[in-house]
Amino acid sequence: MASAELLYKQANDAFFEDDYDEALELYNKAIDLDATNPEYFLKRSATYQKMKKKGKESLADAEKALSLIESNEHTEQDSIKAKALLRKGIALFELKNYQEAKKSLESSKELNPNEKSLATWLKKTEAELEKIPKPTPTPPDSAGFLSQSRVRHEWYQNDNFVIVSIFIKNVKKETVDVYMTEKSLSVTVKLPTGSDYSLELEPLAHEIVPKESKYEVLSTKIEIKLKKANAGAKWGVLEGEDAVVGSVAYPSSAKRAKNWDALEKEISKEQEKPEGEAALNSLFQQLYKDADDDTKRAMLKSYTESSGTCLSTNWGEVSKGNVETKPPEGMIAKKVKSANLKFFFPSLFFF
């Protein structure tokens, strides 16, 4: 018969393989053999959390672990108690008991302030508490103030970065707080209403490099560039578990999905469009190409006789006589060269 310690080790292996059903069964067996080890209950609590909709069970195990810790002396009591309080706080958060969750998380921080995930969970909890209606009224949207629900964010990626854009206009840099770890992103912005906008992404789909990541506060948005730990990998989702994919339709948190490859092509086309004189010349060519015979005669006659200062499509008017040369004020008209005719009216030279 396997010992509780061996079952616990096997359960941990299943947990790290994301086989939570197998892990739960093995943790149950380990606890049946030894119900005095708080670590067993803490790992089962974490397993319940991963399985979703098991908040009550996760909370019960965290509280059981705390009671065992407090009733027994451990060589690293503060460390394991901090872990149990963190687990309890997360379970309370999942049950939407944000006030109690904050208390538990703050107690954990007092014992172990270096725990990386604590800052993220505290920010998430405080963000939820901010959403609870307060007695003082907030300015109406009609006065031009943003609310949390009206702020949108989108994301896209290239080989090296995942770029997250939060669309809030005219934000001051000192009102923006961005916190990153290898697997999380937390953004808090002070809104004109006095409340905070919060974006909490944890866990991110893949690891990032916080030291090589950066953000910029622009006039229309906050742009955050997350450096991929695995350069070249395509993220299928921004948050949660994800497999590396090669999809060309990048995801977005907007209500309608955006095909970023298609968008890039549209932008490229826009950049390739002629401007200024080149755009005018292109327009002349297109007009002539699509015109009927009378319109073509009118364009050619008016352009030639006016030395390039007039372009008419009305043959009925142009056919009545010579078209007068009328250069813009301060400029001198020059005779139209055959090269110009070939450029504007190329079909005349296709023999």
Fold and architecture overview:
Belongs to the SGT1 family. TPR repeats lie at residues 4-37, 82-115. Residues 148-239 form the CS domain. This protein is of the alpha+beta class. Among the domains are: 4-131, Tetratricopeptide repeat domain (Serine Threonine Protein Phosphatase 5, Tetratricopeptide repeat), CATH 1.25.40; 153-228, Immunoglobulin-like (Sandwich); 293-327, no CATH class. 45% of the residues lie in helices and 12% in strands. The longest helix has 18 residues, at 77-94. It is elongated. The protein starts with a helix and ends in a 7-residue tail after the last helix.
Radius of gyration from CA coordinates: 34 Å
What's the end-to-end separation, in Å?
A: 95 Å
The level 1 CATH classification of the domain at 4-131 is Mainly Alpha
Strand arrangement in the largest pleated sheet: 1-2-7-6
Shape: elongated
- What proportion of the residues is helical, as a percent range? 40-55%
CATH architectural designation of the domain at 4-131: Alpha Horseshoe
State which percent range the strand residues make up. 5-15%
Q: Strand count, sense and closure of the main sheet?
A: 4 strands, antiparallel
Mean pLDDT: 80
What is the number of helical segments per DSSP (H or I, 4+ residues)?
12
